[in-house]
């Protein structure tokens, strides 16, 4: 194969002699420190994501419950107002003298608002 003093061996040995091992060790140490920090940060982000996901699930369930309650309340109020209008109409037909023109106008304004 190559003689002991081949060009490639000489080239490699000179490149290696140019590299300061203290600098290489410092770079490796800095990389290990950064890796540790990134792993800790990644772990914290995973924990945050898990907690956020659980909290979102809880809030979604509460939001859905409150939305259903509001829809039910609106339906109930619509039914109540419809019954009030029906009763008001029946009373106006049964007792027209009690419902003068002014009273009807005032009640109509209340219905609009």
TrEMBL record:
Residues 14-99 form the KxDL domain. GO terms for cellular component: BORC complex. It comes from the Eukaryota. InterPro entries: KXD1-like, KxDL_dom. It holds the Pfam family KxDL. One of its GO terms (biological process) is lysosome localization. Belongs to the KXD1 family. This is KxDL motif-containing protein 1. It comes from Ursus americanus (American black bear). The lineage of its organism: Eukaryota, Metazoa, Chordata, Craniata, Vertebrata.
């Amino acid at each position: 194969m190559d003689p002991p003093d081949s060009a490639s061996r000489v080239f490699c040995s000179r490149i290696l002699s140019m590299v300061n091992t203290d600098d290489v060790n410092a770079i490796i140490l800095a990389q290990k420190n950064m890796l540790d920090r990134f792993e800790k940060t990644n772990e914290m982000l995973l924990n945050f994501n898990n907690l956020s996901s659980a909290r979102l699930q809880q809030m979604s369930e509460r939001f859905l419950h409150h939305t259903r309650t509001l829809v039910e309340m609106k339906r109930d109020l619509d039914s109540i107002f419809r019954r009030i209008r029906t009763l008001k109409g029946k009373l106006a037909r049964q007792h027209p003298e009690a419902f003068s023109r002014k009273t009807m106008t005032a009640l109509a304004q209340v219905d609009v608002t």
